[in-house]
């Protein structure tokens, strides 16, 4: 009897693992298809040192920086979401200055002091779990 129960539990667990893989695959497909492409030209049109308010919990501004193609600082309040997007032909390196955020595509969570590298054309976005500030540098 005990072995039968163990076999049934193992079968259920295997089925749940397979279901999780299917769901994750579909979420990734949906995530990729819903991403906004942000071009170099769009970034170039942003005014230096002027806050861009995304919503009541997210804002960012472009900083002057001779060493990088683009440099931004962003502030997010708990519960804020930096929408899904990707940078066409630009690699993004983000340093978490304070707070806790999760990168939406990978599901990785980052805290103060962490560095996040997003390769060119890779979809990404962030959700804030604790008020956060981070800077992002984008280069070819």
Quick recap:
The protein has 140 residues and is α+β, with helices and mostly antiparallel strands. It has two helices and nine strands.
Provide an overview of this structure.
With about 140 residues, the protein is of the alpha+beta class. The chain is built from two helices and nine strands. A hairpin with a 7-residue loop joins strand 3 and strand 4. The longest helix is centred in the N-terminal third of the chain and has 32 residues, at about 1-35. The N and C termini lie far apart (about 65 Å).
Structure keywords:
140 residues; alpha+beta; Jelly Rolls; 9-stranded mixed sheet; elongated
**Distance between the first and last residues' Cα:** 63 Å
Structural class: alpha+beta
The CATH H-level superfamily of the largest domain is Jelly Rolls
Low-confidence stretches: none
Cα-based radius of gyration, to the nearest Å: 19 Å
